[in-house]
Design a protein that fits this description.
37% helix; alpha/beta
Length: 222
């Protein structure tokens, strides 16, 4: 399943002003725009903003950070972090949540989905980067706010499908998300290749992975 079904079960997107924080390649921004939302995709680096803007269809792209969003107070109906909250530095994750509350209109929602450190794709990439601790910290940062200044409307676990043509496509994807990983690839490539051969399953010429994840649909306590 994709991220979208859980979100739209909890909130109709038609006509809503939405920010997709850490939008990556814009896939989820496109899906939300397809549901009738007025989407602004946010990326942290100018080159990523420029690349995404060239491909943007049906949504806008701006530069910004989770802890310093480029939006006015009470201007958005929905703020979404889709597999991006754990990329917010740990020391400013609380600030990013507070900033999300600042930009939400009365009745607005905060939607966060995070991968779990489980599954074949995680195991294949473990020699390159172990994200288990930062993912744990990110979940804890979210859960701490529930019952304080956030109320939980729904929480759900589900698998997100990823399809790749090759191991190199996987490496290109994760390096594109965080270019600092590129320098580490040569030292661990043999181990990654061995894990790929052991764990990857071919489907119609490609390799399909199911990434376990958890998502929260939240609202400000006001």
């Amino acid at each position: 399943m994709s991220h979208l079904p859980f979100l739209i079960r909890n909130l109709s997107l038609k006509g809503l002003a939405v920010a997709d924080i850490g939008a990556g390649d814009g896939a989820f921004a496109r899906e939300m725009a397809g549901e009738g939302a007025k989407v602004t995709a946010v990326e942290v680096e100018a080159d990523k903003v420029a690349a995404l803007a060239r491909e943007a269809e049906g949504f806008e792209v701006v530069e910004g950070r989770g802890e310093k969003l480029p939006f006015a107070d009470a201007s958005l109906d929905l703020v979404a972090f889709m597999f991006s909250f754990h990329h917010v530095p740990g020391d400013v994750q609380d600030a990013a949540l507070t900033e999300s509350l600042r930009v939400l209109k009365p009745g607005g929602r905060l939607h966060i989905a995070e991968p779990l450190a489980e599954g074949a794709l995680t195991e294949i990439l473990l020699p390159l980067e172990d994200e288990s601790e930062i993912l744990r910290q990110s979940r804890a940062a979210i859960e701490r706010r529930i019952g304080a200044d956030l109320s939980l409307h729904a929480r759900e676990s589900y698998d997100v499908p990823y399809r790749y043509a090759s191991l190199q496509a996987i490496i290109d994807d994760v390096v594109g998300i965080d270019p600092t990983r590129a320098a580490r690839v040569p030292a661990v490539r043999a181990e990654i290749e061995a894990r790929f051969q052991r764990l990857a399953e071919s489907h119609s010429g490609d390799y399909l992975f199911q990434q376990p994840s958890v998502a929260w649909h939240l609202a400000p306590n006001r």
